[in-house]
């Protein structure tokens, strides 16, 4: 595979384009397109790509961008889009619709702070605001992780045992606009990995009603079917990772990854690019004799509760780094972790709110968090940790 120095947005656009082109022998591909900083470069890349059987459809807003994806997906096309921040908020109604229609749309969420006040830097509140939609959610830590996860997301979303859309998140500017060396997948390998899409409930020449009125018991059954599909995701994801390794010769991280947790007394749980900083600090602390571990959460929906409970090992102190907040509740990942560890009464679980609105999450800040967690007698309400300029 060619290795190129590219931005995260370029890498994401390339992966989407290869996935779309790989469906040219079936129903082709469609992208509903509307730009918003820091996502715009993805749409620009796709707009200029010479699809053999595909279209990028420019629209007047994000709500319509997802509407285009819904219509195209119902016709059996491989569909994708990208958005950020208030664009995702505007898209929300149709985000829910795509999930309830069981359409395997893949969307790149370039994390950016919701406004007002207006802020273009990274914050996970935009994608996590969609946490109750029937979408899988994946959070990536690097350019290569982003590329690989996009392809994995298509494979899992289109699997007939799942048939749910997937959101793949990348940090705005930290990944979207910085350059790293990336293995950009060639079309031949993408075709070997992604079979042509055959959506079982796509519209045909036969008359069919989509999204009609239902009675309560029918809606309850519908929601249960979605929950059952979510429950099948971990197994399907494992198979998708196995196949990815066979085709591409490397294995992306799965739902989560644990590092140095076998003997850890203290574990930090984090996501996205913060994991890179935490990883380096953990290595330094372990070299100094402190038994510290790291769990990087990649899959947020479905949330890997059992895997997380096992991943922390014997640790009695666990800190969660949240680059987000649910006002009146605390960090969103922390709430999920608390449910996952409900059987571990011996664990002191503390939430740390860090990097909101694009604030720096520095090695020194991570060191302060480790020291604070190690010294705690009890957990408290979520603790704000800021780098003051």
Description:
It is a single chain. By secondary structure, the chain is α/β, with parallel strands linked by helices. The chain folds into 2 domains: 3-248, Thiamin diphosphate (ThDP)-binding fold, Pyr/PP domains (Rossmann fold, 3-Layer(aba) Sandwich), CATH 3.40.50.970; 256-385, Rossmann fold (3-Layer(aba) Sandwich), CATH 3.40.50. It is built from 12 helices and 15 strands. The strands form 3 sheets. It has a 7-stranded mixed sheet with strand order 3-2-4-5-7-6-12. Strand 2, helix 2 (40-48) and strand 3 form a beta-alpha-beta unit. Helix 1 (8-21) packs parallel to helix 6 (143-158), helix 3 (62-74) runs parallel beside helix 4 and helix 7 (187-193) packs across helix 8 (216-248). The longest helix is centred in the middle third of the chain and has 33 residues, at 216-248. The radius of gyration is 21 Å and the shape is globular. The mean pLDDT is 97.
Q: Could you give a quick summary of the protein structure above?
A:
With 389 residues, the protein is of the alpha/beta class. 40% of the residues lie in helices and 20% in strands.
